[in-house]
């Protein structure tokens, strides 16, 4: 009987001890330690100046390049952090792929163009993709050839062989370019290749000219041994196709749920853009220093950034109205041309762009020329 009594006593003592421990836990003060990372998983009693940051996942249009300098500057100098954001990014695989992944919700924001987004919006009218800013005021669409090929004007493309990947935007828009320069779209033949082989084909003489983004094609040709004097560029915007370049895009659902985050992102981003224009050499060095592959060619990236600043970032329109916005008539015309060129459903500027998240004009003006350092 004694051993039964001892077991019962042991059970009673164990229950009593457990009850005491539970009471002690319930009466203890709440923890003030957040979970690892910038975003706490639950409300805490941390001081107001240690608020959690909202994670924003961004996809680039392609490999990280000097064109991404405003984003890198804003991250590395803490501009996003000051706005309560923790911004991370991943490389892209072309504008169309970036649109596709943004559409799946894998990323919160993306750098791509609204013209590729039009096809997505046709299929997803209830959760469209919209631009909340244009960071490239001009699209880098072009036809590039060598002066030695004897093609001095677009009309001399007739009878020539052009090269480009099948999904290349300027190639898809070539019928509109041909219309503007008064040649038949069928007067040229096309050779299709992988994007990485486009400039090689031109350098080897396998094609007479290529279509593409001049910010990609020209630095590759210079790296291949050519000089700027060797190269002939037909800029689409100089021949009736005055398109906007890449914008900062979001899905409508994200936009509806995160208006303040978008405003904060744009404020920090265009602060970074102003820094790039003021001191492009420092911005370029910062981009190169964050290249984990250590394969980035500074000379090629320098030329890329030079072309971007001179032709895409700082234009008369941007000088007057500030970074990020759009002229409605110009945007409407380019959308109508895209509808025709890509054979899409009609769309308006309001279907693809809103400026309601942009910072006030005075916060996104181009730095005065006297404050701008040369790109070295």
UniProtKB/TrEMBL annotation:
Molecular function in Gene Ontology: metal ion binding; transferase activity
Stored InterPro entries: NMT1/THI5, SsuA/THI5
SUPFAM superfamilies: Periplasmic binding protein-like II
Gene3D superfamilies noted in UniProt: Periplasmic binding protein-like II
GO biological process, one term: thiamine biosynthetic process
Annotated spans, Disordered: 27-54
Keywords recorded for this protein, A-Z: Iron, Metal-binding, Pyridoxal phosphate, Signal, Thiamine biosynthesis, Transferase
Every SsuA/THI5-like domain range: 69-283
Polar residues bias spans: 28-47
Top-level lineage group: Bacteria
Residues making up the signal peptide according to the UniProt record: 1-23
Catalytic reaction annotation: N(6)-(pyridoxal phosphate)-L-lysyl-[4-amino-5-hydroxymethyl-2-methylpyrimidine phosphate synthase] + L-histidyl-[4-amino-5-hydroxymethyl-2-methylpyrimidine phosphate synthase] + 2 Fe(3+) + 4 H2O = L-lysyl-[4-amino-5-hydroxymethyl-2-methylpyrimidine phosphate synthase] + (2S)-2-amino-5-hydroxy-4-oxopentanoyl-[4-amino-5-hydroxymethyl-2-methylpyrimidine phosphate synthase] + 4-amino-2-methyl-5-(phosphooxymethyl)pyrimidine + 3-oxopropanoate + 2 Fe(2+) + 2 H(+)
Family per record: Belongs to the NMT1/THI5 family.
Subunit structure: Homodimer.
PANTHER family: 4-AMINO-5-HYDROXYMETHYL-2-METHYLPYRIMIDINE PHOSPHATE SYNTHASE THI11-RELATED
Task of the protein: Responsible for the formation of the pyrimidine heterocycle in the thiamine biosynthesis pathway. Catalyzes the formation of hydroxymethylpyrimidine phosphate (HMP-P) from histidine and pyridoxal phosphate (PLP). The protein uses PLP and the active site histidine to form HMP-P, generating an inactive enzyme. The enzyme can only undergo a single turnover, which suggests it is a suicide enzyme.
Protein name listed in UniProt: Thiamine pyrimidine synthase
Source organism of this protein record: Pseudanabaena frigida
Classification lineage: Bacteria, Bacillati, Cyanobacteriota, Cyanophyceae, Pseudanabaenales
């Amino acid at each position: 009987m004694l051993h039964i009594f001892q077991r019962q006593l042991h059970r009673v003592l164990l229950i009593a001890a457990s009850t005491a421990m539970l009471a002690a836990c319930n009466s203890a003060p709440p923890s003030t330690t957040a979970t690892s990372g910038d975003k706490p998983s639950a409300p805490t009693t941390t001081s107001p100046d240690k608020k959690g940051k909202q994670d924003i996942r961004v996809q680039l249009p392609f490999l990280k390049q000097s064109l991404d300098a405003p984003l890198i500057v804003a991250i590395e100098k803490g501009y996003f952090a000051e706005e309560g954001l923790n911004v991370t990014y991943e490389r892209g695989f072309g504008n169309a792929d970036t649109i596709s992944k943004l559409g799946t919700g894998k990323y919160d924001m993306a750098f791509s163009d609204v013209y590729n987004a039009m096809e997505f919006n046709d299929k997803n009218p209830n959760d469209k993709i919209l631009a909340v800013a244009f960071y490239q005021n001009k699209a880098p669409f072009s036809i590039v050839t060598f002066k030695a090929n004897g093609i001095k004007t677009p009309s001399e493309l007739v009878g020539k062989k052009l090269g480009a990947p099948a999904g290349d935007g300027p190639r898809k828009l070539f019928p509109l370019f041909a219309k503007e320069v008064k040649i038949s779209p069928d007067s040229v033949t096309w050779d299709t290749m992988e994007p990485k082989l486009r400039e090689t084909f031109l350098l080897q003489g396998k094609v007479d000219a290529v279509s593409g983004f001049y910010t990609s094609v020209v630095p590759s040709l210079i790296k291949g041994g050519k000089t700027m004097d060797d190269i002939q560029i037909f800029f689409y915007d100089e021949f009736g196709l005055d398109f906007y370049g890449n914008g900062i895009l979001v899905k409508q659902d994200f936009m509806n749920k995160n208006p303040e985050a978008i405003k904060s992102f744009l404020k920090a981003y265009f602060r970074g853009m102003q820094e790039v224009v003021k001191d492009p050499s420092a911005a370029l060095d910062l981009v190169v220093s964050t290249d984990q592959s250590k394969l980035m060619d500074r000379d090629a990236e320098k030329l890329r950034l030079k072309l971007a600043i001179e032709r895409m970032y700082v234009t008369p329109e941007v000088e007057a109205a500030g970074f990020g916005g759009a002229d409605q008539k110009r945007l409407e015309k380019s959308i109508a041309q895209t509808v025709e060129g890509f054979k899409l459903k009609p769309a308006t500027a309001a279907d693809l762009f809103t400026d309601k998240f942009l910072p006030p004009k005075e916060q996104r003006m181009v730095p005065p020329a006297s404050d701008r350092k040369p790109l070295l």
